[in-house]
Amino acid sequence: MAARAHTRSNPQASGVDIRLPWWGVVLPTLAFAVLLILIAGPGEAHAVSGDPTVAHLVERLQQTLSR
Fold it and tell me: How many angstroms separate the CA atoms of 64 and 41, rounded?
């Protein structure tokens, strides 16, 4: 006696379901931004003459990444 083959009743289930987690987008983007900052180097960056808090934050970030 032959066994019946199970067929899928959901047509969407037959396709490939690829779901990218949030960190699959965030981590490569963050790595690209960090490498871009490292390539630019602190000598190439020019602070905007505006809010000194932002300039201080960027300076601290560069110091942290250069260690």
Answer: 13
CB 47 within 8 A of CB 58: yes
CB 58 within 8 A of CB 46: no
pLDDT over threshold 70, residue 10:
no
**pTM of the predicted structure, to 2 decimals:** 0.38
Angle, alpha carbons 14-20-21 (nearest 5°):
130
Give, as one character, the DSSP assignment of residue 39.
H
Residue owning tokens 């960027």: 58
Let me know: does 53 contact 26? Beta carbons within 8 Å. no
Cα atoms in the 13 Å half-sphere on the side-chain side of 12: 2
CA 59 to chain centroid:
22
Are residues 29 and 2 in contact, defined by beta-carbon separation less than 8 angstroms?
no
